């Protein structure tokens, strides 16, 4: 079998502070499109790659690193993606299948079956959706909001980083449940998107609000029942002073802290006691067993236009580092996707 080109995105150095494009290199390697004899692995052609905030922790040297997922300088970075099976040594997958799971940032990858979350059966929606609304971010929104948030009709919901891959869905799920929902974002364009596209009741630009505590009291005069946490830091601190009794805080992420050498402290933790608040972090992979239930819930709503999704598409693996770095400064509008190949 002839060797073919395999363009890759390589981590050049461990990252301190905000990542930059110079932390990555685009290299041209080669790969033989043939499985090793007796292999149970799956050879895939990557189509769409997902840019996600958690990837920042994988770039660091030291205790923040996440085990086997962590990146090593000189090797390709990895993340969730949609791919086409070229050849399979595993009985669950065959040539031509479209799958989504954890892969490397390169044109072709050899992955274990354990890295594949599922085979894609519903091809009447854009395949790129499986990097977002029908992939890991979608499951994150669903599990965090419904399983941990336990929403009830009429409750009040606040979502930070609300126009991102997860936040745009949480707000729509809240409205479908009959909740009042407010979101924060970092530009006027994103605030408009929240109110006019995603159906948020209210939204504000946190960069224009010098006193977040006062802002939250304005939008939630009687307090917050559910805070879907994506940001951390000063936002979390302000929220803690504006919670109702028995409020819930699913902790999805803390993007404001990922690039700091020393994380910001939170002063208002005592509010958790007085208001009997449930604050819980979660990892989406713990909830992948709910994926069939999620598809049953969501696919009809997508087709009926009751749930919408906005993507920010970067064409070509060579533009991957720019797209990935951009999510940490809020450059993207909606879910950031890198297109490696469309078929």
TrEMBL record:
Give residue ranges for domain Enoyl reductase (ER).
42-338
Q: Which keywords label this protein? A: Oxidoreductase
The protein's GO terms of the molecular function aspect are: 2-alkenal reductase [NAD(P)H] activity
Q: Which SMART domains match?
A: PKS_ER
Which superkingdom, per the lineage?
Answer: Eukaryota
InterPro entries on file = ADH-like_C, ADH_N_2, ER, GroES-like_sf, MDR_fam, NAD(P)-bd_dom_sf
Pfam families given in the database record: ADH_N_2, ADH_zinc_N
| Tagged with keyword Disulfide bond | no
Q: Does the keyword Oxidoreductase apply?
A: yes
Which regions span the lipid bilayer?
none
The protein in question is named: Enoyl reductase (ER) domain-containing protein
Lineage in the entry?
Eukaryota, Viridiplantae, Streptophyta, Embryophyta, Tracheophyta
